[in-house]
Design a protein that fits this description.
About 50% of the residues lie in helices and about 15% in strands. It has 35 helices and 17 strands.
């Protein structure tokens, strides 16, 4: 590789000579080296020698030739085309008595045929029926190829839903039969691979899974730790989808709890927690309690997650399970372990409301001796949110106030905030809490002192305006009278200041204020700055991985970032309307309501690349065309995009040309479209043509070589849809917002959508409406697609500031003929509700 190119021929000639010698070792090594240095042209010259080596009687030489051919195939398309001609020799090599040669031959055959589905099916069928492969490694490859093809049969829709593999297509039947037959092979390697492949098949029926589970059950008692671990891992995965099938292995799994290998023991416990019945929970917890004290924290976290899922499966056992988890909060353990327990308890509170009071008391006991500030503040915040709504909120005050006395400044501030929420929501406790809060007015920490002073001031005003009158304890209420609720009255300032959240997140508030300041003459305006006066800013997609990792245990990304010390990198969101405000004529039209993502109007490889951003205003749409010149000997002048469409709603009002575009530059041109508010919105397609002048330039000097001459370049059609006038804005509480809007202007519709998959239909509905999914309904959970109807909650703001909410039920029809959509749209304007419902097409 590093020698002079003129000397390469000498090296290759020497190696070619070695290929024809009598010493197998020299021949094999010569093949390996040649595969690394020859190009496609030189490969053609030595092709005859390599083909002979593929079927050589020496296993060492044949294996070297097959591996070299695999490397050559992956190098470039020219070499791959030559290697494809060796398919007959490679097939012959699969009959070699040498097991390694068979393995490498199967690898190369797969490389050659992997993009040919029918060729792969034929290959798998031939070798599974002939029984010519004696190498366990080659059979493992054959099992994997069979499993991949069977998986493709299901995912690509060649097997109808609900059809078993034994009753499926010809290949599905023969492929499953081969996998089942491989369960009886003498090699443990092949048997395990076949069992693993069967367990991983999508939509497999329990009766088809049974042989594989029986084999894995035998492997659980193997004397080899590697075999036990492999079987245990696969059984654990099967238990997620088919717990009843695995329950017959429970006796073997219980025996593995005491296994010397802690990975095996942990997997055994988590699997038992997935498959165990409600009656066996107490017995399992006794076994786990001994085991947990002997293992590292990373294994404990896995078991805690399994206990959380078990509690969700059997809510009636929540007292036992939450009590078990809380016991380990008081044991020795690192931050990650304690955090996993706390987050599991918080998740259980959200999903099983019956656990709230007992869980809060357990968490209160934990913060009495908690060494982690982050967990203490998280629990105090939770107490402030949920504690006042319990039957006896006063019982939590002592635990919270202890933190004010004994803890560091961050925890003291969190405790003061929690006490303030108790006082705001429970007027009967205000007098006693005021006494406690006043003691923090002299706190040495600024944050704690400020929070206490605000709370005392607000509560004092609320108590003067709405004094609490305690009910007469001796008086017996009439049977028809409802008991007096301990809740703030309407207009209570303490409830407003201390409990009412912002109408938008701090991130959205920051972006909205930045957009407000950038608008022309915003700071000179005499208009009062209120939330309603701020410009609408849309939600933007966050990376899912970080959110998923935190959400899996009920935590949040900010907590994770603070704990790990990693700074959350936030990309600054650039306001796309800044280009509009930079041109005075366009800025005078008013503030931009929303800007769409760029739409491609030409291919990336064309001479002139054009994209369009739609800036929507109440009565105008400004089309910003980003024009890029990719021709090095041309300069474009006076560039405009002419649009033409047949619509009563839209009319072209003017253009702003891009004066000069040099090679490699991207410059903006604008077209202004007026909208008639009297006419209902309807989708409209515009034909677009790029009009410009071309000046020929010298590529070396950059000087002009000709006068401008006019040219036109046709572009893709541009659509103005109703969804372009909808901003993606979420609401803090969808259910509350849905009830507040009411059904006065509700529009109900039903549609039959031509989508094969429920996931695709959900994504299409979101795209059609242009609204923001709420409550995590934008995606169907893995494994639930098609099994039951999916409820989609959407919110947005229509141009003009009209809040729009929509509920859509997306159900897959059983006959695979499509997807049924039922949608309800609510807003304050009946015309807007109708226009949004008509977006579905």
């Amino acid at each position: 590789e590093t020698c002079d190119p003129d000397d390469v021929i000498i090296v290759t000639s020497s190696l070619t000579k070695d290929m024809t010698c009598d010493v197998d070792l020299y021949r094999a090594n010569a093949l390996r080296v040649l595969a690394r240095i020859v190009d496609a042209a030189m490969l053609g010259a030595i092709e005859r020698y390599v083909k002979q080596a593929l079927v050589d009687s020496s296993g060492q030489v044949s294996s070297a030739a097959l591996v070299s051919a695999t490397h050559l195939f992956e190098r470039n398309p020219e070499s791959a085309a030559i290697v494809k001609r060796w398919i007959s020799e490679t097939t012959e090599a699969t009959s070699s008595p040498n097991e390694m040669v068979q393995f490498h031959a199967m690898q190369l055959l797969y490389q050659i045929k992997k993009h040919d589905r029918l060729g792969m099916q034929k290959l798998v069928t031939q070798f599974s029926q002939r029984n010519t492969l004696k190498s366990p490694l080659a059979l493992v490859l054959l099992v994997r190829y069979t499993a991949k093809l069977l998986n493709d049969e299901v995912t690509e829709g060649r097997m109808t839903s609900g059809t078993s593999f034994q009753n499926g297509s010809t290949f599905a039947r023969s492929g499953y039969a081969f996998l089942e037959a491989s369960l009886r092979h003498k090699s443990e390697m092949v048997v395990y691979e076949a069992a693993k492949a069967i367990c991983a098949l999508p939509n497999i029926e329990p009766q088809e899974l049974s042989p594989a589970v029986n084999v894995l059950q035998l492997f659980l008692t193997s004397p080899k730790p590697a075999v036990r671990f492999a079987a245990m891992k696969t059984v654990s995965q099967v238990a997620v989808g088919h717990p009843r099938m695995v329950s017959k292995c429970n006796e073997d799994l219980e025996a593995l709890i005491s296994d010397a290998n802690r990975s095996i023991a942990t997997l055994a416990i988590t699997t038992l927690l997935k498959t165990g019945s409600e009656n066996s929970i107490d017995r399992l917890l006794k076994q786990i309690s001994v085991f947990l004290s002997e293992i590292p924290d990373e294994y404990k976290i896995t078991i805690v997650r399994s206990l959380q899922r078990l509690c969700l499966t059997y809510p009636a056992k929540h007292r036992v399970l939450v009590g078990f988890l809380s016991n380990f909060l008081r044991e020795e353990g690192g931050f990650d372990f304690k955090r996993s327990i706390v987050n599991s308890i918080i998740t259980l509170i959200k999903q099983v409301p019956e656990t709230t009071e007992s869980s809060l008391l357990h968490l209160c006991e934990f913060i009495e001796d908690c060494e982690f500030t982050m967990l203490s503040t998280q629990i105090l915040h939770l107490l402030g949110e949920l504690g006042p709504g319990t039957q006896a909120p006063a019982r939590y005050i002592r635990f919270i106030y202890n933190r004010v006395i004994l803890e560091n400044s961050a925890v003291r501030a969190a405790a003061v905030a929690a006490l303030s929420k108790f006082a705001a929501r429970c007027p009967s406790l205000r007098t006693s809490i005021m006494t406690l809060l006043k003691r923090s007015l002299d706190d040495e920490d600024d944050e704690t002192r400020d929070r206490a002073s605000v709370a005392v001031s607000v509560l004092k005003g609320a108590m003067d305006e709405f004094p609490y009158v305690a009910p007469d304890e001796d008086a017996e209420p009439a049977p028809e009278e409802e008991p007096v609720q301990d809740a703030p009255q309407a207009g209570d300032p303490a409830a407003f200041v201390l409990l009412q959240g912002l109408p938008m997140s701090f991130d959205r508030l920051d972006r909205s204020l930045r957009a407000y300041v950038k608008a022309p003459a915003a700071l000179e305006s005499a208009e009062q700055l209120t939330f309603s006066a701020l410009p609408i800013v849309e939600e933007y997609a966050e990376p899912e991985s970080a959110a998923d990792d935190a959400g899996d245990m009920g935590g949040d990304a900010a907590l994770m970032a603070a704990v790990t010390g990693e700074k959350e990198e936030k990309k600054e969101v650039v306001d796309p309307a800044a280009a509009v405000y930079a041109i005075p004529e366009l800025a005078s039209l008013g503030r931009v309501f929303r800007s769409s993502p760029p739409t491609e109007l030409s291919e990336e490889e064309t001479e002139y690349v054009v994209r369009c951003i739609k800036h929507v205003m109440p009565e105008h749409i400004i089309l910003q065309f980003l024009i890029q010149n990719t021709v090095d000997d041309q300069r474009l002048v006076n560039c405009t995009v002419a649009i033409e469409g047949d619509s009563e709603c839209f009319e072209v009002a003017g253009e702003v040309a891009a004066e000069n575009i040099k090679y490699g530059e991207t410059v903006n041109a604008f077209t202004v479209v007026t909208r008639n508010p009297e006419v209902p919105l309807a989708p409209c397609n515009f034909e677009c043509v790029l009009r410009f002048g071309i000046v020929q330039v010298d590529t070396k000097t950059g000087e002009d070589e000709s006068d401008p001459f006019d040219e036109e370049y046709p572009l893709e059609e541009l659509e103005l849809a109703t969804s372009d006038f909808m901003a993606k804005v979420s609401v803090p509480d969808f259910r509350q917002g849905w009830e507040q809007v009411g059904n006065t202007n509700e529009v109900l519709e039903k549609f039959a959508l031509q989508f094969k998959k429920q996931d695709d239909a959900v994504a299409a509905v979101i795209d059609f409406l242009g609204m923001q999914p709420c409550d995590g309904t934008g995606h169907i959970k893995p494994g639930e697609g098609g099994k039951k109807p999916h409820m989609l909650h959407l919110s947005g703001v229509f141009v003009g500031g009209t809040q729009v909410l929509a509920r859509a039920q997306v159900a897959a029809q059983g006959d695979a003929s499509g997807v049924l959509l039922k949608i309800a749209v609510r807003s304050d304007d009946p015309d807007v509700s109708r226009m949004v419902a008509d977006c579905i097409r």
